[in-house]
Every structure is written in structure tokens, then in C-alpha cells.
Amino acid sequence: MEILRVVERLKSKENWRVVRLKDVVETRREIVNPRQLDPSTPYAYVGLEHIMPGELLLRRFGKAASVKSPKLRFYKGNILYGRLRPYLDKVVVATINGICSTDIIVLNVKAEYVMPEFLVLVLHSTRFIRHATKTMRGTDRPRVTWSSLADFTLTLPPLGEQKEITDILFTFEKLRDLYSKQLEKLDRIKRGLTDLILSS
User: Fold this and answer.
1) Which of 39, 56, 136, 141 has its CA 20 to 30 A from that of 8?
2) Burial class of 135 by CB neighbour count within 10 A (0 to 12, 13 to 18, 19+)
3) Is the dihedral angle over the CA atoms 5, 8, 14, 17 positive or is it negative?
4) Considering the entire predicted model, what is its pTM?
């Protein structure tokens, strides 16, 4: 199987190098007042409620017109990392431009080192989640800060191998989405039949 051959080759990790997270990304801290945005251009708003645990790409969002307080601006290709309760594993690559909750850290990758699609896989890894969870602070609403994450070390392959890895793992994401939609369809059919059979 082609995927297994690629995985076997990548396991050698030749030319991979150890870097710190802050070496390959920078935080974007552009604050925006939603009321000052151009009303003729629809802006997306992303809160933590729009990011599902384990997802790789941003799929859900609201309207910026619905929020009043200052927010962070993000751009397509940025990574949106939910810093509240990091064990919930809420981190996605932005597929659009918009603004987001200040409970989200906006990361801009340094394209000469890393692909956003590869980095989001690292941020979903068990090792990173454990690191983030150990560094969170607070009791009722525990959060992490960028400074507590910045020195996290990761092993980074060359860009060509990053592309191969993301192609493989994003294929599984697409399969999961397809399977999930089929399950939703089956659930709707089951509910419909249940109502039809049991209605009096």
C-alpha cells in the first residue's frame, strides 16, 4: 500500500531538525473593534464554540456584526489555538479571514520553515497537549499563555516531507468527515422511521 511505503520511508527522519515553537511561528496580536469594520465586507467571527476538538480546518464561524468588544484579527492560513482548557484540543487552520475571541491565540507560521497544515498536526499531538495542560494556570477557567508554549520543542522535517505527511493525515480527516456525514444521515433516517412507526 502506497501510504505504508511513504510512512516507512518517513520514519527514518533524515534531515529533520529540532526547533522551538517560537522559532517557526509568531503570534498575531492585531486588535480590532468590530464596530469599526467596513460594513460592506462581511467578516467572520470565531469563538471557541466554533472550533470542534480534534478538527484540523476551520469549518464553523459566526458574523462579526454580532460581537461588540475588541477582538483579534486573523487571516487565511493562520492557526487559531484555543488557550482555554487546552486539553479540549481546539486548534485549526483558518480557511478564511476574520476576527476571533481573545481566548484564541493567533499564530502566523514562518513559511520558510513550516506549513500551517503540518504545524496544526503537531499542536494536536498528545505530547503537545500534555505540555500545554501542564502549563495552564487558573482553577475555574484554566488557560495557557503564549510564553508557556513558545519553548515547546518539535522535530521538523523538510517542507517536502511536511507536504507528504499532511497529505496522508488530511486524507484521514476527509474520510472522517465523510463517515460523520453518513452517520448523521443514518441517524435522521432512523429518527424518521421511529417517528413513523411509533406515532399514534
Assistant:
1) 56
2) middle
3) positive
4) 0.82
Encode pLDDT of 108-155 as tens digits.
999 999 999 999 999 999 999 999 999 999 888 999 999 999 999 999
In the chain, ranges of CATH 3.90.220.20 domains: 19-156
Name the burial class of residue 117, with classes exposed (0-12), middle (13-18) and buried (19+) by CB atoms within 10 angstroms of its CB: buried
Q: How far is 101 from 46, CA to CA, in rounded Å?
A: 6
Q: Any alpha helices (H) in 13-77, and if so which ranges? A: 21-24
**Alpha carbons 22 and 117: distance in angstroms, whole number:** 17
- Three cell numbers at 60? 464553523
**Helix crossing, 2-10 with 159-198: angle to 10°?**
130
C-alpha grid cell for residue 168?
496522508
Strands 104-109 and 25-27: antiparallel
b vs e for 23-60, b when ≥16 Cβ sit within 10 Å of the residue's Cβ?
A: bbbebeeeebebeebeeeeebbbbbbebbeeebbebee
Q: What span, in angstroms and rounded, lies between the C-alpha atoms of 93 and 162?
A: 15
DSSP structure class, residue 102: T
Angle between helices 159-198 and 116-123 (to 10 degrees): 60
Cell of 48: 471557541
47: cell is: 469563538
For the chain, count helices (H), then strands (E): 6, 11
7, 4, 24: which is closest to 161 by C-alpha?
7
